[in-house]
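Summary of Year 1 activities. Much of the first year was spent building the evaluation harness for sequence design. The harness presents a backbone, in tokenized form, and records the residue chosen at every position. We chose the following record to illustrate the format because it has been used consistently in internal testing since the harness was completed.
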């Protein structure tokens, strides 16, 4: 019984660290466009984007893991893999703008969750590996601002 109460209290504190579930907003950088973030838990989230950068439109999604690296639950560090498809050149390999590129990326970032307001501000940066139509490495990153209704 004591263990069950302890687990419930711990889970409640973890859930309290990130009560917001779905955020929508904008990202400026590579890509620049719209972003959405859905928190699976206080430690995991899925975020996606639709935006332009380096000559085209790109759609992508990342699965990110958040850690309390700074000992502040409102400023989690995150990292995670992602995929993208689009006509953007991701700042590296060049290909015709009418071709679709497909690739993988690994994002590293920091998020600021405003404690008293339904917003977050995130900065992320990481390598992108284009697999098709050419093989090459680029760099993606940006500054995201999201609202949690």
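For this record, the design step produced the sequence shown next.
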């Amino acid at each position: 019984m004591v263990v069950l109460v302890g687990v419930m209290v711990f889970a409640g504190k973890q859930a309290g660290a990130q009560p917001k579930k779905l955020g929508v907003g904008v990202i400026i950088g590579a890509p620049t466009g719209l972003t959405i973030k859905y928190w699976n838990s206080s430690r995991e989230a899925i975020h996606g984007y639709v935006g332009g950068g380096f000559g085209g439109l790109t759609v992508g999604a990342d699965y990110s893991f958040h850690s309390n690296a700074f000992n502040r639950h409102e400023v989690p560090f995150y990292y995670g893999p992602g995929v993208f498809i689009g006509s953007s050149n991701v700042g590296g390999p060049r290909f015709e703008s009418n071709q679709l590129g497909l690739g993988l990326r690994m994002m590293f970032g920091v998020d600021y969750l405003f404690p008293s307001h339904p917003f977050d501000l995130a900065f992320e940066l990481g390598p992108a590996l284009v697999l098709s139509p050419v093989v090459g490495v680029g760099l993606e990153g940006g500054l995201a601002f999201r609202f949690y209704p």
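The helical segments are 2-17. Quantitative recovery figures across the full test set are reported in Table 2.
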